[in-house]
Amino acid sequence: ACLRVLGRDSAERVRALHPQVLEIPFNSTAKWMLTAHADAAKAPDSDARGAYSVRLVVKGAPERVLRMCTIGEDLQFSAEASVKKLMQQGKRVLCIAERQLQGVDVGNNAEPRLEAADVPLHGFELCGFVALEDPPKPGVIETVERISQAGARMVMVTGDHQDTAETIARRIGILPLSAVADEEASLHEVVTGAQLDEQLPANDDFRSLAAALGGARSETWHFWDRCVRHTRVFARVSPMHKRAIVKAYQHFGGHITAMTGDGVNDAPALKEAEVGIAMGVRGTEVAKEAADIILLDDDLQSVVAGMEQGRLCSENLRKSIMYTL
Topologically, how does it sit relative to the membrane (predicted)? Predict the structure, then answer.
């Protein structure tokens, strides 16, 4: 799609001219991926040494990729402002940068011999940003409202950037449109993974927080207590954060937690929650195995319907027992 917009060659032709010789896959910790591409039109002879020129292309979270780029202060400021503006529109933003790597040795098959350890992670040139919009599905706003009316609290836990997550949360009703008057609640409406890293208890054992201080409540204890009471959006979180968040709600609020997810990274939290709900259409097999319930239509409205039917069955059972007694 990007090539068509730029009026360039087809993707197949670009791949043929610049075959991929190395890939460092994306992971949730680094938040970027890198590929290395050779120039097929300038391939040296197999007996040449250090003659290959390879183009490194990295894409990922803007705050991570920009650190790998060599750019001036003015461009840095302009880039960060552009990213923030896009994210505040609810868009997911990818940053793309490249670097030419000269003098790469040629292997036995006349292709560049390049290992991940040989790839420099600095000196890249900023190419630009790609903004992706994933609008809420029809009916999501009404579903969030119905869940709230049912007495349940919905919390967004996402790997997206804080600005993107906050905008979407306000758009669908998880966060109020206007600022919260209470200062403590306002400060903890949105919490990032970086903040959680500073306050994670050992082995996610929240019971040990007070015990370690002879019953006194530490700053970490107060942080998680405020999160459970006030936070509605957890952004830029990792898989271990998701599991810790579920355990925090169970420990501090005594809540019965339900967790929805579809990826491998969601499996620990799905397993930890009292009710793990996996997506049946786009969900991975690992997520489905860890979950208690699988939504065959991937629709949150089915969760509301399940809550209604469950409460109806519980009420009918209670009435039946009372009548019998």
Answer: Multi-pass membrane protein
The 3-state DSSP class for residue 135 equals: coil
Place of tokens 């810790």: 244
Residue 184's Cβ-side half-sphere holds a number of Cα atoms within 13 Å equal to 9
For 217-263, what is each residue's pLDDT tens digit?
A: 778 888 999 999 999 999 999 888 999 999 999 988 788 999 999 98
Non-local CB neighbours of 300 within 8 Å, separated by 6+ positions: 137, 140, 143, 260
Q: How far apart are CA 225 and CA 188, in angstroms?
A: 11
Location of structure tokens 């490249």: 98
**Whose CA is closest to 30, among 307, 236, 230, 213?**
236
Q: Are 104 and 112 in contact (CB under 8 A)?
A: yes
Backbone φ, ψ for residue 155 (5° rounding): -125, 135
Longest dimension (CA), the chain: 92
d(CA 197, CA 211): 21
Structure token pair of residue 203: 């082995």
- Would you tell me how many other CB atoms lie within 10 Å of the CB of residue 275? 16
Domains in the chain and their CATH numbers? 11-133 (3.40.1110.10), 140-320 (3.40.50.1000)
Q: What is the dihedral of CA 9, 10, 15, 18, to 10 degrees?
A: 0
pTM to 2 decimal places: 0.81
Quickly tell me which residue has 């009420």 as its tokens. Answer: 315
For the chain, where are the alpha helices, taking DSSP H only? Answer: 2-6, 11-17, 62-65, 73-87, 140-149, 162-172, 183-187, 193-199, 208-211, 219-230, 239-252, 267-272, 285-290, 301-324
- Evaluate if residue 109 carries a pLDDT over 70: no
Candidates 297, 250, 23, 258; CA nearest to 147 is 258
**3-class DSSP assignment, residue 39:** coil
Amino acid at 17: L
Amino acid at 235: A
